[in-house]
Structures are given as C-alpha cells and as structure tokens.
C-alpha cells in the first residue's frame, strides 16, 4: 500500500550562506552553512531522532518508565572514485528507564531498526546500520 | 502485539486463558505491575504450542500475592487472552473479560 507523500522544499541562498527548508504546513528549518550542521550530519540526526522516538513509543507501550534515551551515531564514509558515501552507521544507545530489562530493550531496538523506524528502514537498503552498544541505567541508579 | 488488562490477587483470584489459533509456536511475555502506574512486579515468559489453549492461574506468581494492577502481554502473533476474576469472599461474583490490544503505532512520523 502506498502511504501519503512527504513533501519538503529547500532553498540555498549563496549570498547569505543560508539553507532553508519548509514543509507545506510552514514548519521551517534554517541553517547557516559552515556554522550549523552539515546535511550528512542532519541525516544522522534524522536517524537518531526517529530511532529515539520509536524506541520511546515501543518501550512505553510495554510498561517501561523512561527518563531519557541518548543515542550516539557514527557515520563511516568511504570513497569510491569521485564519490564519497556513508557505508556504515554505528548507533549506540544509553537508556535511563525503570520497569524494563536489558534483553527486552535489545529486542525492541532490533525490531525498531529492522521494521519500524522509517529512517532506518529507508537507509538499511544501502547502509549497514549496526547497533553497537546498549547501556541500560535504572532510574534508581541515577 | 500488546494486550492490556487488569488483575487482582487482593480479595480476588485471577485466572488467565490463552488461545493460540496459529499452527506454530507463539512466545509471549506477560508483565504484571503494581497498580496502574506502579513498578513492575513480575515477568512471565510462556511459549504456546500450535493451537494450544492454556490456563494460567496468577496464584503461581508469588510476587503478585495480595497485589492488583495492570497486565501487559506482548506476543509475537495475535493471540486470544481472557481473564476470569473470582471474588474470594463470594465465589459466585466473577468478572470475565477479554484483554484488548493496545494501539501499537510505531515509527517517528
């Protein structure tokens, strides 16, 4: 089944060194080139953001009490002729939560990256996404 | 799939029935909480055989003795699960209900 298209517009203003993005609902993003994040970093932010939101939803449904989810992403670029692209992404999780065990969190992370996190599912077709490390801190151990 | 319901071993006895309609084994993880938003008291992992109907009495779980609260059941495939709650003072007073699936909308958008 085909889902609804996602539409965004981007503008680059070379004189001001600004990159703008806007959705039809007028949600905007403005980036100062060289000062803010680069597009490749934004791709990792998109993956980390989507993975965190999805993990939060899935663990909350399972009764976990989540205080924070920290995700660190490392993109591993390779050069092939003239082009450079990201071949592998290492994704590390640090979760502070109660009412959930390590094994369950690991299961949910794998499900999320393979099936539910839209950005991971999209990137998986060309990039190898590897969950690298998972630390689970109990709320009482803060 | 996640099913949600309530149990009580505090003045009541709760018996669960699981029905696996599939022709393969189905694993499930049952979590029992203290109250609606309380701590996790017990996790029970079960594996149902193909087409198996299994009864599970919560008296078997020591951690929920004299407690009442939320049950969440996570299963790989859709299952039927019902709960029968019996009043210990008057065994003619019973509550029989089916655990309902909670919405499992995943993804970031």
Description:
The complex is a heterodimer of chains A (142) and B (109). Chain A has two domains: 1-36, no CATH class; 39-141, K homology (KH) domain (GMP Synthetase, Chain A, domain 3, 2-Layer Sandwich). Chain A is 31% helix and 41% strand. Chain A contains three helices and six strands; from the N terminus they run βββαββααβ. In chain A, strands 1-2-3 form a three-stranded antiparallel β-sheet, with no helix packed on it. Chain A has a three-stranded mixed β-sheet with strand order 4-5-6, covered by helices on one side. In chain A, strand 1 (9-13) and strand 2 (18-22) form a beta hairpin. In chain A, helix 1 crosses helix 2 (102-116). Chain A is globular. Chain B is mainly beta. Chain B has a single domain, classed as TM1070-like (Hypothetical Protein Tm1070, Chain: A). Chain B is built from no helices and nine strands. Chain B has strands at 2-8, 12-19, 26-33, 40-48, 53-57, 68-75, 80-87, 94-98, 100-101. A five-stranded antiparallel β-sheet of chain B has the order 4-3-6-1-9, with no helix packed on it. In chain B, a hairpin with a 6-residue loop joins strand 7 and strand 8 (94-98). Chain B is globular, with a radius of gyration of 14 Å. Chain B starts with a strand and ends in an 8-residue tail after the last strand.
């Amino acid at each position: 089944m085909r889902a609804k298209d996602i539409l965004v517009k981007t503008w680059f203003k070379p004189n001001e060194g600004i990159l703008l993005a806007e959705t039809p609902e007028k949600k905007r993003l403005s980036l100062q080139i060289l000062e803010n994040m680069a597009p490749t970093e934004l791709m990792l932010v998109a993956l980390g953001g989507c993975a965190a939101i999805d993990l939060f939803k899935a663990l909350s449904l399972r009764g976990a009490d989540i205080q924070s989810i920290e995700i660190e992403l490392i993109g591993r670029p390779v050069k092939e002729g003239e082009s450079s692209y990201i071949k592998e992404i290492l994704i590390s999780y640090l979760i502070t939560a109660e009412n959930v065990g390590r094994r369950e969190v690991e299961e949910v992370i794998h499900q999320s990256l393979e099936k539910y996190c839209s950005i991971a599912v999209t990137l998986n077709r060309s990039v190898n996404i590897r969950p690298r490390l998972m630390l689970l801190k109990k709320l009482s151990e803060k | 799939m996640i099913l949600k319901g309530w149990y009580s071993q505090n003045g009541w006895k709760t018996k669960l029935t699981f029905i696996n309609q599939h022709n393969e084994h189905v694993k499930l993880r049952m979590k029992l909480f203290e109250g609606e938003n309380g701590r996790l008291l017990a996790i029970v992992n079960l594996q149902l055989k193909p087409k198996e109907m299994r009864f599970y009495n919560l008296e078997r779980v020591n951690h929920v003795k004299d407690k009442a609260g939320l049950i969440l059941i996570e299963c790989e495939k859709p299952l039927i699960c019902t709960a029968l709650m019996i009043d210990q003072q008057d065994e003619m007073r019973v509550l029989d209900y089916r655990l309902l699936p909670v919405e499992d909308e995943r993804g970031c958008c």
